[in-house]
Amino acid sequence: MKHVLNKYSHIVLIAPFVVCFVLFIVIPTVAAVGLSFTRFNSIQAPEFIGLTNYIFAFTQDEQLMRTVLPNTLQYALIVGPGGYILSFILAWLVAQVSRVPRTIITIIVFSPTMTGAVMMASVWQIMFGGDHLGYLNSLLLRAGIIDQPIAFLSTDAPQFLMPIMIFVGLWSSMGVGFLAMISGILNVDKEQFEAAYIDGVRNRFQEVIYVIIPNIRPQMLFSAVMAIVGTISASGMGVLLTGSNPTPQYAGQVMLNHIEDFGLLRFEMGYAAALSVILLVIIWLMTRVAYKLFGDSGK
Q1: 18 vs 33, 74, 157, 273, CA distance in Å?
Q2: pLDDT digits (tens, 9 = 90+) for 176-199
Q3: Using alpha carbons only, how large is the chain's radius of gyration in Å?
Q4: Exposure winner among 3, 75, 91, 174, fewest CB in 10 A?
Q5: What are the structural domains of the chain?
Q6: pTM across the whole model
Q7: How do strand 47-48 and strand 38-39 relate by DSSP bridges?
Q8: Of 221, 211, 232, nearest to 299 (Cα)?
Q9: Residue 298 CA to chain centroid, in angstroms?
Q10: C-alpha to C-alpha distance for 295 and 264, rounded to whole angstroms
């Protein structure tokens, strides 16, 4: 009996994960792919319509092609790599200080990740308030840069919404990546630094290139994947900031908002499922790029 338990112990240990993975990842993904080929309003039975939803998405959904996809790619390509690079630089800088200030700075940097998105949006709504009480407007008015408050988050000034979203995204996207990278940097064997200097390393930049980066590739891969998934699938800050979906003049509309718009507001669940499949493919492609760059084999 003991031999049998030892033989199948690994199955028992991974069984909870497998069950949760199938229930919450595999089944919803398969269901979304299936629904993407149907017309479904969440009340009547789904009606199979083939590739109609996908054809509509790329040929007739003007907002998708004109604003939503460009906004999504712009946000992801700036916030993803930008937050990733900032996470690495900040993690390296913080790793140079002593333990107590390092712990305090780590908590401060990681705190946005622990804070709910709604609470974060409330803070930034005050910062970018459209009257003289908004912190940014108050600062600009006192400095004499503007004469009247700017409605940063309204239809009157849609050009400001995406830059504000990118700024907030960069500020809030460093938490998990920063934590992973600083843990990797702090756990690099000190003897490797000594050996590197014996072999010809002469400055801190070379130390980063030849010692730190090769040793924290797993943490860098994890951070890259988290950055990609986070920026593309959770970039709904525009709706939280403005309080409307779609955002004013679609200026901050991204794929996640577009999916919610059709699925939860218009009840076009089949088309929303098709959009979610398109989003899944985009995330998968960008994740493959991350594996090419930071995978162990370098492929």
Answers
A1: 21, 35, 48, 24
A2: 788 888 888 888 888 888 888 888
A3: 23
A4: 3
A5: 62-294 (1.10.3720.10)
A6: 0.77
A7: antiparallel
A8: 221
A9: 23
A10: 38
